[in-house]
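Weekly modeling sync, notes
Attendees: S.R. (lead), two postdocs, one rotation student

Agenda item 3: backlog of single-chain predictions. S.R. asked that every request posted to the team notebook include the full sequence so nobody has to chase files. The rotation student volunteered to paste the first one in as an example of the format we agreed on. Action items at the bottom.

Example entry:
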Amino acid sequence: MSAGPNAPRSVNHWLVAFAVVVPTFMEVLDTTIANVALRYIAGGLSAANIDSEWVITSYLAANAIILPMSGWLLTRLGRRTYFLLSIAGFTLSSFLCGIATSLDQLILFRVFQGLAGGGLQPCSQGILLDSFPKEKQGQGLTVFGLAALVAPVIGPTLGGYITDNYSWRWIFFINVPVGGVALLSCYALVQDPEYLKEERAKLRKSPFGFDTIGLGLLVIVMVSWEVVLSKGQEWDWFGDPFYRVQTLAGLFTLGLIGLIIRELRYPAPLVGLRSLADRNFAVAAVVMACAFAVLYGQTTSLPALLQTLFGYDATHSGLVLSPAGIFSVTLLPIVAVLLARGLDARWLIMAGLASMAIGNYWLCQMNLDISPWDVVWARVVLIVGLSLLFTPLNVAAYRNISLQQRGAAVGLLSLLRNEGGSVGTSVAQTIQERREQFHLLRLNEFLDGLNPALTEYLAGLRPILTAYSGDPTAPYVLGYQIIDDVRQQQASSLAYFDVFWVFGVVSALLVPLVLLMRRSVAEKGAHLAAE
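Predicted structure, as returned to the notebook:
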């Protein structure tokens, strides 16, 4: 194995990969593991169920603020130092979340957790890119893919199992021993490459300049964005009579415009937007954000469908989703081998998007008489698609990014990936609730006394209900109640299937977009070439 010019090879890169991917896995896991436990958290802390959603929103908002700053922070602090501080902060804040005695405390500690954990993804991805020889970077990104893809898949399952069998507090306590081991491992194995040391040495000689205005604009943009996504449906979006959504949307728009102008003109920008000038990176960012919107949107909707309409508890609904993770772990190394043998990354990306579209179309064609295995295999097809595109998308995205821009580019792509998940969750919730009302109204069109099918069905129910209740008048009330229950179930199921249909269309529309990317292949096992 030849040593590259930018990173020391004294430590086996596979040991480094294992060490850095573990804390990243835990950080990504925390974006979904608490979702199934919100009502338990609310009950345990004597808070309203609707207020417990701030446990998720606060974490995502804090995470979103720090992610685009991670490139600036790691160059000034040193990537190793910043990575170790992030692990320590994430572990400590996880412990504080576990011992919180009120919802306000928990939300505050989740903010700390999000701020500390935001540096883990970009740092680990940058470490993997530098630790592996250039011809094996696909393998390094495959290891990162295990954290980025498998963690949100098993998050609801693990969260449901812990909540059902132990306590919601162990959702946070589980990070403490893992974080401690990860901190010691990374302290022993991770080192900064020479180019980062040289860049940091140059920065020390220059006057310290912190983009305070950029930070203020970034906080306004990301907090407004996350709150709108989280509470928009509850507040009726732009129909909000208290103008909360309208105000936040205005702040977001003005803040984003100001942030873009500021960061493109400032000599030492806090957020590295210049990476988007590269065609491969820009297309990869769009595809990555949309792909994770589909993943998180479906990961939210599918357990809700199983729990509300099929009577599954949190553990069993998670078990239906989990087998897809096995296929993901199996497929990611195969994708790395295909990339190393010279297959154009674009074909794998397009195949992955097509598989995601098929998986969602499969789900939207189902009904309430399906078995668990019908859902399992449709979910497998979706996750197989994500496994096919994740590593090739990352390889193609960073192909033309310079080493000096890599830290900022990794942070920006991580931000867009996470925000894609937030958008997908919000879109899924909005579509489900609004389409359910639509389907209820449509089903009502045929439920009247002049419909012979309805009157015949009620007549058939009366003898059964009379024998059951012993009251000759009860069948009239119970019969219509049964009809209403069926109507509600069918409308809700159709709304969930509409969510999957929208996600399938989004996945299919992304396929031709990939053709805008430059061709990325491994030539002679040495490097990636763009043609």
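Discussion: group reviewed the output briefly. The chain has a mean pLDDT of 83.
Action items: rotation student to repeat for the remaining queue; S.R. to check formatting next week.
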